[in-house]
Amino acid sequence: MTRTLIIGAALSTLLIGLALLSLVWTPYDHTSLNIPNKLQPPGAAHLLGTDHLGRDILSMVMVGARTSLGVALLALAIGLSLGVPLGLAAAMHKGNWLDETIMRGNDIVFAFPLLVMAILITAVFGPSATNAIVAFGIFNIPVFARVTRGGALPLWEREFILAARVAGKSHAHISIEHILPNVLNLLIVQGTIQFALGIQVEAALSFVGLGVQPPTPSLGRMLADAQTLVTLAPHIAIVPGVAIIGIVMGLNLLGDGLRDALDPRLQKART
Amino acid sequence: MLRYMLKRLASLVLSLAVASLIIFALIEVAPGDPASFMLGINAQPETLAALRAELGLDVPKVQRYLTWVGGMLTGDFGTSYTYRTPVAEMVADRIAVSLPLALYALILSILIAFPAGIFAASRRGRPGDLGVMGATQFGVALPNFWFAMMLVLVFAIQLRWFPAGGFAGWDKGLLAGLTSLTLPAIALALPQAAILTRVMRSALLDVLGEDFMRTARAKGLSARQTLWRHGLRNAMIPVLTIIGLQFSFLFAGTIIIEQVFYLPGLGRLIFQSISARDLIVVESVVMLVVFAVILINFLVDLAYAVVDPRLRSPK
Fewer CB atoms inside 10 Å of the end CB: C or N, chain A? Predict the structure, then answer.
């Protein structure tokens, strides 16, 4: 369904674009306080209203989304850079001690519920954006190891790999040169999904004070601030929440659309 | 069947052992000595040493680990550094809120997802299916704690149907307890129901394409009978996996939701203990949650064997 892909790509591009735009331009300075002007509902001067300190919510959401995207992206990078090599190595010698160790290790990391792991890490090392990134990054490692291994295993049975082995290429060489490009589709799809999940995790951790710390704005932090004020001015809770839903929906639709577009088997099944 | 169970049991024990080592090691590297934290910076060295001995902090690490694990196995979770009460008692009070909340949410999730998934699968590609699938995309993206705030805004503050927060306590009766847990359970359940609906739909669609489904139709069963007798049972494997995962997720998710509704559950206990650096409580509660998750995965594995006889005997 290319419609999914188009909607997903449009929504993600629009919202991520707005977040990136905040690097060069925001309607107002998101740090400038204007207490007399606090808790204004959305209007002409402030499109999405102002918060309890009179800051422009649109500007805050743009900058906050950038922080959230950064957290999710870095956690994704940790997961990819460690998970993919582990998955490739595990698939290289299916069933041997390395494969077993990696897969059992993965089972154990999976047994830690993500939030509990994040809480444990932040309890020990203190709440910070970095620790939230590390916590979610660690969770991403087995996810990508599993996807990579799962995609790589059937490839090792294929003739073109056999040909490469006959040609005398080492296992590691084949993994990088032939296996990796062929599991890239899977990684892109999983990557979009984990990216979206990262946005949600940042929001949840920052909401309970374990993620991004003040004064840096993030979507989760804005919601934490909004919790006590939601009855007075619902818009300060609604706006960041809708931003999270928009970004996550956009990325999820993009992931679904990419999966359909990149997997020829699914296309055949549909027609 | 027995061999399958034993193998699963061995992996359960191994996972628990490794998990306990990781948790213990992480807490060990935590900066700051609990005893000096409790006594403050002006503590006398002798008092400090006495407290360290009382808390069992002066013995070697290996022995401390063994004492902790041994204690957990016998239901002794240690003594809270700040409250000086047994952690097991504190946990028991809190789990009476968190566990029912997670179960309540899981039941809601299943009650929403099964009909929605079956409805979508039976109308594949038609407007009804597209509507359900669109709704699930929204549901999956919905942050449960934000949704919780919105529920409070509408159903507690504007309509006043439910309390905005706090827990009535089970001693006030089942209904009072459930009423305080209803909004939190809905907030937790809806995003999970969206995921479960998608799994239910795709599992059913996979099964509907199978040859035995055609055979069942050919021998004269109606579409509805085929779906109920053969379709659902065969679609249960992926659905059970996700239900198992969801329970762990919901149990951990209560930690955040309890913050929105000021519920006195395990989540609030963890956060209070973190800010008081009461690490023995954090350690034991985290181990307990991890234990619950590993145990649930084990039970799901066993449930597979019941649903799918092919898994009982190894190939």
Answer: C
Evaluate whether the domain defined by A3-22+57-270 bears CATH number 1.10.3720.10: yes
Cis before residue A142, ω within 30 degrees of 0?
Answer: no
* Cα(A33)–Cα(B226) distance, integer angstroms: 65
Identify all chain B residues contacting A132, using CB atoms and an 8 Å cutoff. Answer: none
Q: How far apart are CA B54 and CA B36, in angstroms?
A: 13
Residues of chain A neighbouring B141 (CB-CB closer than 8 A): 196, 200, 244-246, 248-249, 252
Tell me the C-alpha to C-alpha distance, in Å, between residue B248 and each of A49, A106, A115, B102, B115: 38, 17, 11, 9, 23
Partner residue opposite A123 with nearest CB, options B11, B15, B274: B274
- Read off the tokens for A167: 């040609």
Nearest chain A Cα distance for residue B78, angstroms: 18
| Pairwise CB contact (< 8 Å): B138 & A245 | yes
Show me where the domains of chain B are located: 96-268+285-312
pTM over 0.90: no
Smallest CA-to-CA distance from B181 within B286, B99, B252 is with B99
Nearest to A70 by CA among A259, A217, A237: A217
Picking from B268, B285, B279, B287, the residue whose alpha carbon sits closest to that of residue B31 is B279
DSSP 3-state assignment of B124?
Answer: coil
Which positions in chain A touch B248 (Cβ < 8 Å)? 113
Dihedrals φ, ψ of A45, to 5°?
-70, -45
Q: Do A111 and B290 touch (CB under 8 A)?
A: yes
B202 interfaces chain A, CB cutoff of 8 Å: no
What 3-state class would DSSP assign to B187? helix
- CATH number, domain B96-268+285-312, options 1.10.110.30, 1.10.3720.10, 2.40.160.60, 3.30.470.20: 1.10.3720.10
Q: Where are the domains of chain A?
A: 3-22+57-270
Averaged in consecutive runs of 10 residues, what is the pLDDT profile of chain A (271 residues)?
86 92 86 81 83 85 93 96 94 84 79 79 84 90 91 90 90 91 90 92 90 88 89 88 94 89 61 39
Q: A154 to chain B, minimum CA–CA distance in Å?
A: 19
Distance CA B145, CA B152 (A): 11
φ, ψ of residue A22 in degrees (nearest 5): -65, -15
